[in-house]
Amino acid sequence: MRKFVVHIVIFLLIILALATLVDILVSQGLRHTPKNHLETMNMVMNDSPKYDVLILGNSRSANGYDPYILDSILGCNSYNLSTSGKSFRISNLRYQAYRRNNPAPKMLIVNIDHIELSEGTLGFENYMFYPYITDSLVKPILTMNNFDWLDQHIPMYRYRGDYKYICLGLCELLNIYHLKGKGYKGYTPNPNNSWNGNNMHAEIRNKPHQLNVGLDSAVLEIADSFMEQVKKEGVQVVMVYSPLYYLVQENLSSKYDTLKCTYEALSLKYDVPILDYQSLPINHDSTYFADGNHLNQAGAELFTTLLAKDIDSLHLFNHKILLNHSCKEQIHE
Q1: Quick check: helix, strand or coil at residue 289?
Q2: pTM, rounded to two decimals
Q3: pLDDT of 89-100, one tens digit each?
């Protein structure tokens, strides 16, 4: 019996050693792939290039802010750090990871809306964390993103069911296959599709959860600490309400007014300007949207051009002149 137990223990140790080795190899390979959300995550977690302007936000900003337009108008080098389905908690993580390897940027464009200060969509696109499960910045957010004890401590367990990432990691590491990045600098444009807004009323009626307004106290605390940090770093911050289809705006819960007051309080506390684009004519034109919440590529190009010109005309980037809070009402007069 004792011999049998010894054999079982040795067998389990061999399995554990092999799993640990494969985990290291797969994770190392994934750190070099531009697959979807891994591209930006790899950029900030490893030795990334230096950028003058960084964009932070959720999928609405990932789809809505074109870095190349910002670069061409402002004469800067920008990158879109936004991530889909996550709250400002992940925006902060990505910024802190970027700062471990780089000096502070000159400017941060922070998208603000009805979901940015919510807890976010837990479990969405979690593969971006796979290669960084032991990183000190990632570890605090694992449990809340549905990584249990086994995911965090048993080699390869978190990869269960995601065999494509195991294959991708090994292929990248062994130079068998390498994905090419799309070269959009973190921007993920939506195609100019044929959405015409006709189904918006049905969406509002059948999926009211999509109109939820989120204000999580823990995320707000992170945003407040973040604003304090970047102010000390001398970074010019601009908070932006990007375009939102008018029917979505009209059907957001009354909590949106409270949330706007929260953003206003942050703006006043840290002397950060707010640029509001939710009353533009394009908010009534479905041809600029992929759906009620997200701009398509045409809408993103138009909006980013307006934003860049406003930043330029207000001397926010080149001359570090902070807007008086009341200026936000004058921008599009």
Answers
A1: strand
A2: 0.89
A3: 999 999 999 999
